[in-house]
Amino acid sequence: MTMIVDHVPGMIWTANPDGYIDFFNVPWLGYTGLTHEKATGDGWMETIHPDDLPPLLSIWNKLLVTGTSGEMKARLRRFDGSYRWFLTRALPMCDRAGKIIKWHGQTTDIEDLICAEALLAGEKALLEMIARGSSTSLFLERMCAIVDQISPESLVTIGLMAEDDNRLIHTVTPNLPATFSQAIDGDQFGPDAFPCSFALDGAKTIAIMDIANDYSWPVYRELALKHGLRACFITPVISSDGETLGTFNLHARQPGPASQQQLAIIEQFTHLIAVAVERKRIDAALRSSQERFSLAADASAEGIWDWDIEKNEMFMSIRAQRIYGMEPGVTIRPRQEWRERIKLHPDDAPLQMQMIDRYLADAAAAYDGEWRILHGDGSYRWVRICGSCVRNAEGVPTRLAGSVSDIDTQKRTEAALEQSRRLEALGTLAGGIAHDFNNILGVIMGYGEMAQHDLADNVRLQRDLNNIMSASQRGRALANRILSFSRSHKIEPVPVCVEEVVSEAIDLITSTLPENVRIEPQLGAGDAAIMGDPTHVHQLIMNLATNAVQAMPLGGVLQISLQPLRVTTPRVVTTGILAEGDYLQLQVKDSGEGIPPHVMERIFDPFFTTKEIGVGTGLGLSLVHGIVSDLSGVIEVSSSADAGSNFSVYLPRSSTCAETKCTVNRSLPLGRNQHILIVDDEAALVTMTAETLGRLGYTVSEFTSARAALDAIRKQPFAYDLLLTDERMPTMTGSTLIQKARAIRASLPALLMSGYIGQTAADIDLPNLVETILPKPFTAHELATTVASILAHAQEHFLP
Length: 800
Description:
alpha+beta; Beta-Lactamase; six-stranded antiparallel β-sheet
């Protein structure tokens, strides 16, 4: 296994339950330059950037305490002394009892991603300043500040040509003293004393990778070394028509070539400087020069349009045409031609026209709207169109100009976040419903077991009671599935009887099918099982079936089949390789419109959808792909316009389903008259639990109020051997009651029972608060064994 991990390209490590890191694979050691002996234990800490070590250790220690998985970001030192950003993920491995036996971690290089995100954010901020018409000095100062933030090892000076002569006027990063720019801008040395003039004359970058050993410009060399500069990269800023506007000068305190990040900064920010300068010039001559306006449009990241109302002609930049889903072409056409080419959503077209008319009539303060545009592939994409008009002396509009932005990703992300919030709220609601349902089931199961015991000789009644208990067990399984939906933590895989889950899903789907859609199930898997989570399997089926139904707007047939399959020859399928082995093959087939070839290659991409906002977020099939991947399965997709689409999911078969039988366990551990205090706001459940415990040989005190139970403990703190309380109760939760009771008597054993552990209780360190949690509904056997175990443990470890 070590050999395999050492040949994995990623950085892998493992740690003991206490956090002692005992293994790093070869890629990690090769990157850091440490030996395995030096890296293990605490030795790895020396490779973490000093600023990042405290927050990293804080997160790591928190994970060790909570026993949950998590991730940490920090800069990791390479063997050559340089640092790069990495994302470290830690995942605990537990035994069957839930005890952590090992930590596994992976460290992934995210330097390029962080740099790209920072550079993109900086570019966006600068573009916004350009769009707002900010002054050039503020723009350049902000640019220097952005470089300082995203590349602290870089020091920037920006020189722009003065409009009245050929002098360079510099804007200098705050990290360089003013004496540096004063010397560069001064006349005492002459223009040839500095490399900037040579970069301007040659219109090319001058790279000085070791200032100390470069004597081409002695005056500059002395000045740079005096200020601690060892390398410099001077790039001319050139306008779109070839005019030299100035220089972008990036300095470094260490000799050597420019890094990839520095090269990206030079390329992007040099271009932005050119855009900013040109925008200023074009704004000044906008009314008199359509040519300069076109140059600004070509340089802008957004689409630009300009409607000459008097001529009824409209300019549309190349970028704007692309955003509108058109092939770029002529930029000036009659406005009516543009309107015929641009296909707005039928629901948006009248609203957009109404907004323009109101704005031109001076009845609206602004023209700024978000609309859906039809693209050539049949999908609608969201755009934002903003405009401002020019009016003559009489107030009549003569020109309306503005921009168009592609905001489709933003809108779909917002829709996905909203769906996530709705699902979170639905999960909370589902948990509450399941809690109440479990309370009802608890009473049914409890009295059912008592009846089974009392009427053991009545064969007919035993049969009926067995059916009641069997139905109760199914209800408990259903409630647990609802609770699984409401939880966000990772669930350990268990044997899943796929045919049962598919049958339940089909029942649910059938009840919601349109009248023109017919379902044809073919289930032949029997008791074949996979390792996974029933809720995820259910979600997988529901997502595939929902997509299939939506692909048949005119009606059709939905076929769902499940069969065992043995694969003897590996083959390539849509999402990977179908290896040899035993599988369960789930097929969901529709007779709908089919999937176009250009869409097929993107169907599993997150947020990709051809549906409208509100109909689909583009997450359904990406979630299906994620679930199947987690189950070590693959997906094969076939589609045609005349036969619809067929999704075949191959899930590795693990075993057979264990049949749940409702039998009476007559050998239950009995009590020795220990005194148990029961608290639950459900009176029927309190009575049933008390009667069950009484039959087991315990003395019971019953309470339906947590406050009344706490008063009883205050009066007689040593009268009770065990506190058995529900969690979700009005006025006081069970976990709060246990904390208050422990403040009175620290050694009081406690058992928390609940049909749903809510977020408030989940935030509490329950393992240190209670000995165990008894999930509702529970059987007499589960209650008896749990209570007996806690009391036995208390007798061994605690004194009154």
